[in-house]
């Protein structure tokens, strides 16, 4: 028999739930109805990006955390003595793993699996665009110039994936479906050449409601998967290097002068993870002077990217406003995952997507 949950509300549900803005949308009425249905009797408290609540947070036990500054989160935590579980509406959780949260032992879960499909489609769109020289073709159209250009077939392209969580696996599945050769680096090796990476799912030990449909989608036949020591080999042979790793102390600024010097001349870097994975000054040098052929950047250290940023001026850079994750289904999947975990919380069952605070994801 499953024991009742730890919540002080009816049937083990939380007494109160704090909601900060998630993704780029307001909570829709149907979202709030689903949350209330998953936690009957729970009081909902809305929290602004600055941490201002529209009611008391004394009895808040659970938080759905979207846009909220780390210092505002810590202030809220100090005013919410019963807050025990925070669900991050993003895959990255560096803003929730603050010293105060770690000291209290707050359980953190994340949105792993929610964004895998749209991000993978974004990556393949960019690989196809660069390989088929879409930016140059659009320039020729603007110039009213008729000049056919030679492109590359994806069967001749090697894609290197750094980070083999749900996003990395989804990218691998699509890339192999298009005929690319795919190699990957993950925290620990364990998948041999030509083997479906079942062991790679150990990095995503729990499967969310949003990720359940990703199981077959993420079953990729990769050419090679290695540990961190194989990163130089991946950089030296990949035509496209896709950053899909979490931000941790080990991955902060992992793309720097030293690693960029290992890159295959003419390769493109695609970042759909975190801006802090890259030393941006080193990246600018590699884009201007080589060896990089170009970069697709959807995330930056400082966002929004200032209008004065030199990245806007480079012909071999495609800048997008942190939009790789966006699709019409993302918000539904995000709320569905949170509600699934709310029901688990009330029933005393294990939560999905629990983050390892030591690993940082």
Describe the protein's architecture and organization:
29% of the residues lie in helices and 14% in strands. By secondary structure, it is of the alpha/beta class. The strands form 2 sheets. A 7-stranded parallel β-sheet has the order 8-7-6-9-10-11-12, with helices on both faces. It has 2 domains: 10-114 and 328-347, Rossmann fold; 116-319, 3-Layer(aba) Sandwich (Rossmann fold). The protein is elongated. Helix 1 (29-38) runs parallel beside helix 11 (330-347). It has helices at residues 29-38, 70-79, 99-104, 116-131, 134-142, 166-177, 214-217, 231-237, 257-260, 280-289, 330-347, and strands at residues 16-19, 43-46, 60-65, 85-88, 107-109, 158-162, 181-185, 224-226, 240-243, 268-271, 294-297, 317-319.
Task: Give a short account of the largest sheet.
Answer: 7 strands, parallel
Look at the structure and give the CATH class of the largest domain: Alpha Beta
Name the helix and strand elements from N-terminus to C-terminus, one letter apiece.
Answer: EHEEHEHEHHEHEHEHEHEHEEH
Share in β-strands = 5-15%
Beta strand count: 12
Mean pLDDT: 90
CATH architecture of the largest domain: 3-Layer(aba) Sandwich
Low-confidence stretches: 191-220
User: What gap, in angstroms, lies between the N and C termini?
Assistant: 30 Å
Structure classification: alpha/beta
Oligomer: single chain
Query: Which descriptor suits the 3D outline?
Result: elongated
Q: What proportion of the residues is helical, as a percent range?
A: 25-40%
Number of helices: 11
Largest sheet strand order: 8-7-6-9-10-11-12
According to CATH, the homologous superfamily of the largest domain is NAD(P)-binding Rossmann-like Domain
Instruction: Write the CATH fold name of the largest domain.
Output: Rossmann fold
């Amino acid at each position: 028999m499953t024991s009742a949950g730890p919540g002080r509300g009816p049937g083990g549900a939380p007494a109160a739930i704090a909601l900060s803005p998630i993704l780029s949308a307001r909570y829709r009425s149907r979202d709030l109805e689903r949350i209330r249905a998953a936690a009957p009797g729970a009081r909902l408290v809305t929290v602004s990006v600055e941490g201002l609540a529209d009611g008391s947070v004394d009895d808040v036990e659970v938080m759905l955390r979207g846009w909220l500054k780390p210092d505002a989160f810590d202030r809220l935590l100090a005013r919410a003595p019963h807050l025990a579980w925070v669900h991050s509406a993003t895959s990255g959780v560096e803003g929730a793993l603050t010293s105060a949260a770690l000291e209290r032992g707050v359980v953190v879960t994340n949105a792993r699996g929610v964004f895998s499909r749209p991000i993978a489609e974004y990556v393949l769109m960019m690989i196809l665009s660069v390989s088929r020289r879409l930016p140059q073709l659009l320039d020729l159209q603007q110039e009213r110039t008729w000049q056919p250009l030679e492109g590359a077939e994806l069967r001749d392209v090697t894609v290197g994936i750094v980070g083999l969580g749900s996003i990395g696996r989804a990218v691998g599945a699509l890339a192999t479906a298009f005929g690319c050769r795919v190699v990957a680096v993950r925290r620990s090796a364990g998948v041999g050449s030509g083997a479906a990476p079942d062991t790679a799912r150990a990095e995503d030990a729990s499967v969310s409601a949003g990720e359940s449909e990703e199981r077959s989608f993420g079953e990729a036949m990769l050419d090679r998967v290695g540990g961190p020591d194989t990163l130089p080999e991946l950089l030296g042979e990949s035509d496209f290097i896709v950053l899909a790793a979490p931000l941790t102390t080990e991955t902060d600024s992992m793309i720097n002068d030293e690693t960029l010097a290992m890159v295959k001349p003419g390769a493109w870097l695609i970042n759909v993870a975190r801006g802090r994975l890259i030393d941006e000054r080193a990246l600018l040098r590699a884009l201007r002077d080589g060896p990089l052929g170009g970069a697709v950047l959807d995330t930056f250290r400082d966002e929004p990217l200032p209008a004065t940023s030199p990245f806007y001026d480079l012909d071999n850079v495609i800048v997008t406003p942190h939009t790789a994750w966006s699709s019409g289904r993302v918000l539904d999947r995000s709320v569905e995952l949170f509600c699934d975990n709310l029901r688990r919380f009330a029933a005393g069952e294990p939560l999905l997507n629990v983050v390892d605070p030591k690993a940082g994801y």
